[in-house]
Amino acid sequence: MTIRILKYTLTVFLLLLFTGFSFIAFAANDAPMDLIDAQIKANPDTSGVYVLDTGTEALLARAWLADNARKSIDIQYFIWSTDNIGILAAEALLRAAQRGVRVRVIVDDLLIDAPDKSLLAMSRHPNIEIRIYNPKVSVGVPMQTRLLNLLTRFRGVNQRMHNKVVVVDGKISITGGRNMAAEYYDYNHEYNFRDRDVLMLGETVKSIQASFEEYWNSDLTVNVEDRFNGWRLMKKNVNIEGKEIQEVYRDLHAYAKMPENFAPEVRAAIADVPSSFATLAQQIVWGQVDFISDRPGKNDSILSLGGGGQATLELAKLVEKAKKSVVIQSPYLVLSDEAIELFRRCIAQGVTVRINTNSLASTDNLQAFSGYRNQRKRLLDMGIQIYECKPQPDIQQKLMQKIPSARNKIPIFSLHAKTMVIDKEIVFIGTFNLDPRSENLNTEAGAIIHNSELARKINDLIEIDMAPENSWDASKDDPDQYNSFTKLNKVRLYQMMPIKPLL
Span 12-282: which CATH code? Predict the structure, then answer.
């Protein structure tokens, strides 16, 4: 969950992805949304999927959708940073609203760092509505109220919306692990995530839209303007009107048109944008896709930090049905007693369980790693095969081949994908981490795809990530040895703390 702010500028490629330079011509000439309509019509009562396995693809798809939406854009994110990616994405939504598209955004309160007046200015646009999920620590919350909430509403403060969903025109959608920040799209020169999303169209988008509406109408989701009006001791008193609003809009548009902050060496990638989407559309696989999502609030537990949820239940059912193999990628690996027993039964029935997770050298979350370190030997002894990602794996060069190095320093590459493959027949791609927080506290979402061809493809990609050139086999090596004494001591300190239910 750690946000690593982009310290180096992005490329012209990103600028034009979000400003729509290449996409506008493509839309005018080929009516790309008509192509989507035609595919949905040709495949009634089924769903099309395309896996966005690289940051470049994931950015391209989001940018294309923002620039070609006709009626509506509905978005849910856990993190929306004010780095280049976050600012350019906000500007893309503003442009969509200015051409008449209805834009609705839900952002979790915990890690949003947008300036108050910028949030208010965006929400004052007649075609934009912004709502904050469970605002107890950030948006419109003065320091004294934050402290009070931590003391009196500890569970409530820890109940976060971890969903990541984009729905355009009610017919095409994206979900998966990526938030709206540079490190999720391979463009941070210091730290990047190996992540995975899935683009969907057709029947399953109805379920995704219904889930968004449930969150939009929930009492936990509050209009951003309501967060800045009220009793001064409990809410910030912030306002913005007229000229100030227009100034925010002008600044966003001006920022998106500033080429001097973007490196020129990847300009050639711009020419590939139209053909890239055409290729993507041809590779969409059609079949049964089930969208799973926790309800707002996750569960009815009040006093404890447990309680489970719908996503937890559905994923446990998948594991129970496994006959041969379960292959998982999860950035954090902290199993509850219930999860340990689930995998123990699975292994006892002859099912092979292999998990790819972060090493201490690659993780962005020392607290979560401490929980894994406390149980790693136990998991290995019970028969789970664990492979810990290296911080500079060979696969990094393939996935980031268009990204220039920053001052000859290779960025850390950390696993963030949340994926599970069952028997090479069914694949889950979503937001669920293998930890107590995803199991009991955070709301989660994702797609269960019933397609053996796609499942085998994703299984093969994870096998590559687990190969010796990309990961350490935790049963044969000690990956912790490749870290500093200081870092090891920090983890040991966390290991002694009673924080497992929060990890």
Answer: 3.30.870.10
